[in-house]
Each structure stands twice: as structure tokens, then as C-alpha cells.
Amino acid sequence: MDVSEIDTPALVVDLDIFERNLACVASYAREHGLRLRPHTKTHKSVRLARRQIASGAAGLTVAKVSEAEIMLAAEPDDLLVAYPIIGHTKLARLTQVAGRTRVTVALDSTFAARQLSDAARAAQVEIGVLAEVDAGLGRVGVAPGEPLLQLAQAIEKLPHLRFAGLAFYPGHIKTLDGSGLRALAQLSDLLRGILGDFRAAGIETGTVSGGSTPTLFHSHEIHGLTEIRPGTYVFNDLNTVRSGACALEDCAATILATVVSTARPGQMIIDGGSKTFSSDRLADTAEVTFGHLVEAPGARFHKMNEEHGFIDLSHAGAGFSVGDRVRVIPNHICVAVNLHEKVYGVRGDLVEEVWPVDARGKLQ
Fold first, then answer.
1. 3-state secondary structure of 10
2. Scanning 202, 316, 323, 363, which has the fewest C-beta atoms within 10 Å of its C-beta?
3. How far apart are the first and last CA of the chain?
């Protein structure tokens, strides 16, 4: 099948770039002795999860129990649920997953730990637990110091739970400029202090799990880090480019769209809007744009309705006609993938494979 035969709008992945990204991160992790447990939230595909494992990933990361259930098909040795699981229904399903592979959960409250312990005891399984610490993002995670120590001590006392170490997410570090590198150094100092506290308290931290795609290739500079959980790196996106973690040529995924209207001078409409790209904007800017037009970098994708993408051509340096096809690198690929049922893997002008987005819409 030729790329020209793909109906639009469609999510297209350049297999050469994808494979290069996969190999690059696997090599980096090996070189620095870091356990690679990639987050599947980006691709949501069993097929790609298997490729990550084949290239050296020691396990997989998910956010939801339903994603864990799907990713069992990739046959991982270890699944990390990097999200506090609350509620008896979800926990009963999670213990079934734990009956089929080793499961670890990151959480930040004794409430979540007790519920998890009760569910694991009822199912007669053991589940590993990472105590989540807030490293600066202010989302989930307890404060460093006594609150974190108390959480770890509470986990150690609960039956059918195994305290496995610490988890954090440095999502507050979005760029690798001077301020970003200073924040990375502060994070390293923070972890050095935390690990010192745990040693003094006689608590062993076997795993220190963290990292993100923007900070990925600086992970070895973070004191005590043993495991990284990047997700976006397999495809990359415009926000990753803006962070300084990759270049445009490292973006494997684009949305292929068709020009459906040029009725208004200086503007074209493409057949994809918020239900194709998501409404996520660029990070750390007030600029309202929704993607990078590969064929015309000067064009401005500035507005969306559900099925319409508005492209300002005032500075495009190129003209387009109804029926032309364009490729758009989205701002945030993870959300865009979740909007599509399938992905076209292409090499050059040929479609080599088509795979389903297995975990699409898995929110519970």
C-alpha cells in the first residue's frame, strides 16, 4: 500500500525514525546502567510495547489498570502502575493482573496503601510499592523528609505489600536551558538528601524510579536514580522539540491531513480538528498553535473546531489547493494517539504495517 492511499486524517509513524529513537534510548540506558521501564501512555500499543521489551526494556509502565490489563499481552516481566489506584473495583482487577506478572504501584498515601494491601491479601498476591515523592511539580507525591519516611514505614508494615523504593516525576523541568539544568541539579541534591534520610532510618530503597522525556538524556546526572520511565521518546512531538530534548527530524509521528477548503484568501482548512489533534497547546508559552506543518513551517495552525483545522498561510511561503495532503507534527503526541483507532507505519512511500491503538480510551 502506498502512503497516497491512506485515508485522512490519519496517524502516521515513520518507522525509520521510530526505530532510531527506540535504539538510541535503549543504548543510553545500557551505557549508564539505568533500568528502562518505558511508559506506554504514548503509543498505547501492545505491538510497540513488545518492541520496547525486545530492545532492552526491563518492564513497562502504565497509568491505569485497564492499560495494565491490555499490556499483559506484551508479556512484560514487570508492570509499574505509576498512578495511585483508589477503589475496590480497580484494585480487584489489579490483583488479577498481579496474578499473571509482577506488579508495582506508585502511591502517595497510607489510604491508598491500605486499600492495596487489603486487595492483595484477599487475592493472596504480593504487590510492590514505590512511595511517591513530590520532586517539584506539585501534582502527586508527599513532601520529602518526615512525610515520605512515614509513608515508607507504613508501607513496610502492611501485609502482602513489598516496599520497593521511591518514585518521582520531574515534570516541572520542561526545558534544558540554563534554568532547566539548574533545576536538574537541585533535583539531584534533593534525591541525595532523601536517600541519606532513608539510610539513616535503616530503610532500603532498591528502586529509585523517575525521569521524563525532556530530561531523558540527563538522567545519569541525577543522584541515586536507578530507573527511567520515558514515554514520548518513541515518537516525540513539538513540545519535546521545544524542550530541547530532540530535533524536528526526531519526530516519528505526524498527522496526515487533507486540505478541504481554500475559500478564504490566506487560509486553508484541513480535515482534522480537536478530535484529531487534541487541544493541547505548546508548553511554557502563550502562543496559540496546535502543530507544525511539515510542508510549510511558516504556516500557523492557530484554531480548531471538532473537525476543522484552521491554517493561516500569511507567512507560509507556499500555496495549497483543495485536495493537497499535508503532515502536521502535533504539540502533544500522547493525547493525539488516544484519539486514533489505528496507526500507519511507513517506510519511505510504502505502508509496511498498520497496528491498532490497543489501549485507546482505557481510562479506568
1. strand
2. 202
3. 36
d(CA 258, CA 270): 5
Residues of the chain falling short of pLDDT 50: none
Looking only at the bridges linking them, the beta strands covering 253-261 and 10-14 are antiparallel
For residue 273, give Cα distances in angstroms to 50, 257, 336: 31, 10, 11
Burial of 212 (0-12, 13-18, 19+ CB in 10 A): buried
Question: What sign has the CA pseudo-torsion 296, 297, 299, 305?
Answer: positive
User: CA 60 to CA 155: how far, in whole Å?
Assistant: 23
Which of 51, 58, 62 lies closest to 36 in space, CA to CA? Answer: 58
Query: Is there a contact between 116 and 99 (Cβ–Cβ < 8 Å)?
Result: no
Q: Is the pTM of this model over 0.90?
A: yes
Using DSSP's 3-state secondary structure scheme, residue 346 falls into strand
Q: What is the 3-state secondary structure (H, E, C) of 198-258?
A: HHHCCCCCCEEEECCCCCHHHHHHCCCCCEECCCHHHCCCHHHHHHCCCCHHHCCEEEEEE
Of the candidates 302, 303, 300, 299, the residue with the CA atom closest to the CA atom of residue 318: 299
Which structural domains are found in the chain, ordered by start? 3-8+246-356 (2.40.37.20), 16-235 (3.20.20.10)
What is the chain's length? Answer: 364
What's the pLDDT tens digit per position in 84-97?
999 999 999 999 99
